[in-house]
Amino acid sequence: MLVQDSPDALLEKYGPKCTLNEATLDDVFLHLCKMPLSQRTTPRKFTTSSRSPEVKMEREGDRNVEILSFKNIRDESVNIRSELQTCKLDQKLIPSTFTATKNYCSQVKALTVRTSIIYLRFISLPLIQLVLILINMLIALYAFGFDPKGLTLGAIIDNGQIHCDTNLGHPISSGRNVTRPEIDYTCRLLNIIEKLGVNWLGFYFADIPLAIFQGGLILTMIWWDRGEQIKGSWALIGLIFYLARVAVLSLYFVLGSLNVNVKDTTILTISVVMVYVYASDTIWPIEAVVWWYRPFCHCLPLTVTIRVLRSVMTKGWGITHPTVFFGLICFPLIITGISTMVSFVVERRNKK
């Protein structure tokens, strides 16, 4: 099929009348890769008298090419939409544990090859993903209060004490001109907010440049890969990314108020990032993971967020859509509010 025409032309040619007209070409090939060997079939050669009327004949130059549409596959267990229902009804189709494990390994192998090909074609894609993972780890370390430069953004650790010059607020309040280059503007902001008793609030403001950088990388990667397919509002997409980031930061603050050390913070951050990558359908489709992990994937809030975000991008859902409003706007705000109150209570208790 790929030798005959481009992927877009194939979807346009065979899509309107087949049962996979709502799927992308990646979904078609992913489905074919996931098929067990026992269910895979090759196109049969038909004679003139027994040729099915559903087989299409096309003339390309001096050769006649037989093309079988996906809708002509007679095996109901191969159909994407009825595969799960058929397996549930027919007990004979349920494989043993060893066979199921072998099938999962073959699926992961096929997906690994597919991902490797994508990485080889687009070298910048794995580099961008690596940068995003490192930035997430740096964000968690900052939020927990471990700053290599000595500036504890978030001011959660060490009983809420900020490692900046405590006399910095006096020249600011007195109106004197402070021009010392070694004085950081973030320290000034954190010292002012420290008097209000909500030290973690300053990190939300100090985190805005890093949030813009990370969100810009993600949106650039999406625009570069699927920019022509985006139907939703870019402003809404950016708002969704920022609200999800603020919700994650608020959860980090709650954990940071428990005085977690650097080693545990790093291990926990790596675990959270890897669970996020593994369960968010970013690299592997959820259908390809092991059976005991699927319920966790579907119940994970981040997974639901990303799936709804796809609808915002590809279907043009707006902020007034109930799923978008309650799932991507209200839910992160509720998580942020609850985590903020918990961290505020714990921080005030640590100061006593």
TrEMBL record:
Domain of life the protein comes from: Eukaryota
Molecular function GO terms recorded: ABC-type transporter activity
GO cellular component, one term: membrane
NADP found in the keyword field: no
Pfam families registered for this protein in UniProt: ABC2_membrane
Membrane topology term: Multi-pass membrane protein
UniProt xrefs under InterPro entries: ABC2_TM
Record field: transmembrane: 118-144, 203-224, 236-255, 267-284, 324-346
Swiss-Prot/TrEMBL keywords: Membrane, Transmembrane, Transmembrane helix
Localisation per UniProt entry: Membrane
Domain ABC-2 type transporter transmembrane, chain residue ranges per copy: 200-313
Protein name in UniProt: ABC transporter G family member 20
Taxonomic source organism: Folsomia candida (Springtail)
Taxonomy of the source species: Eukaryota, Metazoa, Ecdysozoa, Arthropoda, Hexapoda
